[in-house]
What does this fold into?
Amino acid sequence: MEACSCNFLCPCITSNLAGPATHDFCKAAMAFEIQSGEFGGTLMGGVRFAFCLQSKVVMSMGDIIAGVIVDTSATDEQVAAVGAIVSGSGGGPLAMLDPLISEFRGIERQSIEFVKDGKHVSVKINGILDQAVEGIESPAVEGQCLTIDNTVHPVNSHLNLAVATRNTINAFGIEWSDSEGNNNGHFASFDWQGEAA
It folds into this structure.
């Protein structure tokens, strides 16, 4: 799941990261819960992590600061694997952001609560990250969310559109808080493959 400081609908989704953010910046967090898989022989099922970032007004111009939080239940090997996955060395989809990051502020370990219940998805890291998104009901298909397809996003080209009902970030010097329900959110399953560089 992801929530950012932009109003719904995030301009990056429709502009290939080239549209201006709602503010003079974008502050965002992507939270992940891996169901199954492996990286370099390390089993990754059950690992949770959050990727926090802050960009200038146009994300594709770079100068992004970022940091990663991995759940305390992860082993040292799993933490190292997450570090590779979110960097260019992992060869996966998140590597597309690597050239845009000017300052990586490291990896921390914290307890991460991740909950997905239908169109409601939330992540909580005490004192650091508290986000919840609610999928927008499809007007055409009962029980499904409104979606966008064939977009450029590191997680999936198919996203369930949502609004952030809670959106607080206080990590790696990135600070944002909004509870008015106007901020953009989305969520999707992911199935990544790649070769380490």
